[in-house]
Amino acid sequence: MAPATAAARALAYHDDGMYVFDKKFLMCKFCDKRVDHERKSTIDNHIKADLHKNNRKKVEAEAAAKKKRQASISESMSNAKKVKEDREEFIKSTVRAFVNANIPLEKLDKPEMRKWFKKYVPGSGDLPSAQQLRDKYVPLLKEEYDDYLKDKVKGKKIVVLCDETTNRRGQAVFLTLFKVLPSKENPTSQLFVASVKILENANADECSKAILQTVQHYEVAHLNIVAIGSDSAAYMVFVFSGHSLIILV
């Protein structure tokens, strides 16, 4: 009967740390030494020896510790990522709430407001300043709102409502609203703010340009615009006369 090969012994004693080296030698990975593969008794005596058992415990303990460290690092990175994501969502939600409630973001810079947040809202102590919120997070929310409104007006019949006023700096502010008319899917009309633009001059050309830019931005098909409504200001009458808004016809 031919003696067992190193490969056969390695397969039989795999769980005891045996493997084949250079296709012909039987090695013990725990003891890092060659073992005679021709005699089974030699292998049995090796794995029963205290030295082998101690080496095995040491190697397995080191492997377990390494695996635990890797899991700990992975968990720490995952936790850090979640903390960052949660913080970003908290900031965005705070800005969204203030904007929707028409509360100036500057209120968040008030010491009493900061003190209240720090006491009752865990993790809010490092809330960015109002200027940072306006520069970074308001544009992000605007992008989300734009996508939301595009979906709301897609394929729907709408009425474009617009009006002009002045802000505290005396600038002309042009407001455009979209009123989505009732349909089979949604039996009630819905009103959305589409744009708020600062005009250089409150005239027919500026107003018609603001309306056109808003309609194009939200990808509203011209055939879906049922009507355009505003007040009876002279320049708005001129807008609707067809001279300035001819591209919508």
From TrEMBL:
GO cellular component: nucleus
A single GO molecular function term of this UniProt record: double-stranded DNA binding
InterPro entries in alphabetical order: Cggbp1
Compositional bias (Basic and acidic residues): 54-65
Gene Ontology annotations of biological process type: regulation of transcription by RNA polymerase II
Top-level lineage group: Eukaryota
Chain spans, region Disordered: 54-79
UniProt name for this protein: Uncharacterized protein LOC117646833
Biological source species: Thrips palmi
Species lineage: Eukaryota, Metazoa, Ecdysozoa, Arthropoda, Hexapoda
